[in-house]
Amino acid sequence: MSKRKRSEVGSLGDDQTYYEHELTKGTLPHTEAGVFLPRHSFAKETSTFIMDDDAFVNNAIHCRKLQSELSQGINAIVSSEGGERSIQKQQQNILWSLVQYVSRDDTNVNEEIFASVTQLANDLILSSVTRYELKTKNRKEIDWIDGWIEEAEYTKGNSHLESANWSVHQLVYELLLQVLLSQSSRDSRVIVAYWRVDSLKKLLDLFGSPDSRERDYILSIIHVFYKSVVKFRRTIRKFICIRIQSIVFDEEESTQGITEMLEFCCSIIRGFAVPLKKEHEDFLMRCLLPLHKLVNMESFYPPLLFCIMAFLEKNPCLAPRVLDYLLGCWPISNSSKEVLFLNHLEEILAAIPADILKDIICKAVRRIGLCMASYHSLISHRAFLMLENGQVWCLLLLFRESTFPVLTHYAEQVASSHWNSNILQIASRWCHRLRTLN
C-alpha cells in the first residue's frame, strides 16, 4: 500500500469555498475473487520492478514506451477457463510499480510523467467507452459484450457483469488519481493543458459503467477535477444535468451511476455561493425533483434527499416550490415510495421556518390526512408518526385554525373504520388530543 493516502477531496463552490468531503469509497483495492489485489504476494514480488531505479521512471522515453507496452493486447479476448495471460501480468507489474512510485511522499511527478499517464488513460480506458446491456443467458453460459464478460445463472434469474480487464483498469485508475492529486496540489494549469473537454466528457460518461468499482474511481477523479480546475466546473455540472434528464425522460436509459452522481452533486451544492444563481435553481427544479417520478427511486433516495435539503439550506424560500412539486406527483399507487415521500415531507416541514410555509401548509396537511386514512397500515402509521415530531407539531399548532380541523376529520374517520387494531388505537388517541386542543 502506498504511503500517501488518498486525500479527502472537497467541493469548491462559486465563492471559492469548500467543505471537506470525506470519501467513503474504498481505496486500493477491492477484494472480490479474481480481481488483482496490489496487497497480495504477487504484487510484493514485483514491487521492485521500477522502485529500485527512480531515474528509470523519470525518463520521458520510458513513459512513452510504457504507453506502447500497456496498449498491446489490452482488448484481447481470452477464455475465462484459461490461465493468466502473460501480457496482462506484465501490465500489472509495470502499473503497480508505477502506482507505488508516484504515491511516495518524496516523488516529484513532473509534467512529462503526467502527460504520459494521461495518454495512457486515454488509450486504455477512454478510447473504448461503450454502452453495455445485460441479457439473461442459460445456466453457466458465458457471453462477451464489448470487452466485458457476462455470466448468468438461469435458475436464479440474475446476471453478473464484470470487466475482463479490470485488474489492469483498476491500476490505471489508481495511477491517474495519484498523479492528478499530485498536480492539483501544485499547478492546475498542467491538468488543463493535457485534459480536453472531450476527454472529460468521456470520463463522465463512465458514470454509466455497469461496474460499481469503476464508478467509485470516477467519482473520486471527478472530485479532484472539480476542486482543482475552475474551468471544468460548468462542463461537469452541465453533463450531470443532461445525464439526469436523459434518465428521467428516456424510459430505456439505465439508472446505473445515478447514486454516485447525486453524491457528487450533494458535495458541490454545499459549496454554492449565496444567493443561488438561476442555473442552480433550475438544476433543482428540472433535474433533481423529476427524479422523484422514477419507479426505482428507493435505490438512490438517500443522496437525493441530501441534495434537496442542501438546496433548502442555501435558500429556504425554495421550500414552497419543492413541496408543491412533491405533492403534485404523490405516488398514491406505490406504498413504498409513499412512505419515502412522507419522510421527505417531514424533513422539509421540520427544517423550514413557518412564515415561508404559510401558503402551502394547508395543502401539505390535507395530504398528511389522506395518508392517515390510508388502508395500508405502514402508510397510515407513518403519517401519524409525523405528528410526534416536535418541530412539525409546533408548526401545526401555529396554524391550528386551518390544520386541526383537517387532521381531526381524518383521525375520526380512521378511528371508526380502520381494519388494523394498532392504527385504531393510535387514531383514537390523536382524536382525543386534537379535540382537546381545538
From TrEMBL:
- Entry's InterPro entries? ARM-like, ARM-type_fold, PP2A_B56
A GO-annotated cellular component: protein phosphatase type 2A complex
GO biological-process terms attached to the record = signal transduction
Q: Its Gene Ontology molecular function terms?
A: protein phosphatase regulator activity
Q: Which domain of life is it from?
A: Eukaryota
What name does the UniProt record give this protein?
Protein phosphatase 2 (Formerly 2A), regulatory subunit B
